Amino acid sequence: MFPLFYIIVSLLVVLPDVYIRWVCLRGMDLGWWNLLFWAPLAFFVFLLVMYFAGGSQPFVFKGMVSAILCFTVPKLLFCIVSIIGRAAGYIAWDSGGSEVLRGALTGGFDVAGIVLAGCFLVSAVYGLTYGPKRLEVREETLTFEDLPASFDGYRIVHLSDLHARSYAAPGLIEKLAATVNDLDADLIAFTGDLVNSSQEELDPRMTAALSSLRARDGVYSVVGNHDYCEYHDYAAADGAARAFAEVVRRERAMGWRVLMDSSAVITRPAVSDNGEPERRQDSIYVIGVEHCGKPPFGSRGDLRRALYGVPPVFFSADSAAVGLAGSDTVRSSSPFKILLSHDPSHWRLEVLRNSDIQLTLSGHTHAMQFRIGRFSPSRWMYREWYGVYREPAADSTGARVLNVSAGIGGSFPFRIGAWPEVVVITLRRPG
What we know:
By secondary structure, this protein is of the alpha/beta class. It is built from 9 helices and 12 strands.
């Protein structure tokens, strides 16, 4: 797969240069400018040699993506517009038009292609330099009919996809921690991909900043596909497993509660509709699964096991019920359930069909780190890829809700439109 991938990418890099040099610039003596013209192609060839020679894979990956964004895509855009212009000019000439018209169409489309390519280049440079640092706060208010009254106004800060290596620049991770702590959260939920490929990315500076995150009910997290550390070459056969265990250990050392197909309950003294306290407890269950989703990332989590002991839980008719009644020590009226699941495809694949979970929090998609309004290449891969989604509950008690975060970091430091984000979710009752 990978050799074919690099062959296709190589053709996409080479063919625009061939078209521009021998079609658009035909007959022109560029002199020393030829060196500048062919420099991006030479750089790409150098990266290919590095790749096949076993060189630094992160360097090769970042270099190739940067070269594609800054050179290949702008050239492709120009070539597409230019070819359209030349085709239009030929059709006009063949239909009896003059050479002047043909030349005007060809030249006009070339100018339009240059403008389009230039706009994309400027956007790409911005996305590579400032985009990964443009941290934004997105606020959502979600209303649930079955939310216990004592949790009306409950504030959840949803974080996802840190990809620790993305925050190598001094001060960025500290800025993130300060932003989160200023939001006065009741609970912080992190939905996976803390690291990109290795536990070594969680250096002392990183862990110190993440350890400083504060919320009244604590920080809860789950693991994502990158946290298994399988995108890294290890000398030992069990290297990835040991690295994964170390990532989880460091999360817990930061004071985070890592939910590995398990749950936790948060209680508040119940209040009546008129605001008077009652002699019982209202509950919110925070449930976390290991990574569950669609190929090629696979599924490791077990929702049934995660729901064990959470009342009441139902499954489809062909499934065995696994929920148990609440204990005498924690009595709950209308327990509300929040699921942390890294991959949003899990929501439709299993959560909606096999549980009564009201709110699911996910990440994973990053909105492909490129979004213009409601468009992103992510929508070609995921039905739910960014923002808030609702489905009616089977028992008509209210909506089932999914929030997909665009995340904070990424395997590659580039973002346009899908800016790094912290999501603040306020839970409300109707009225």
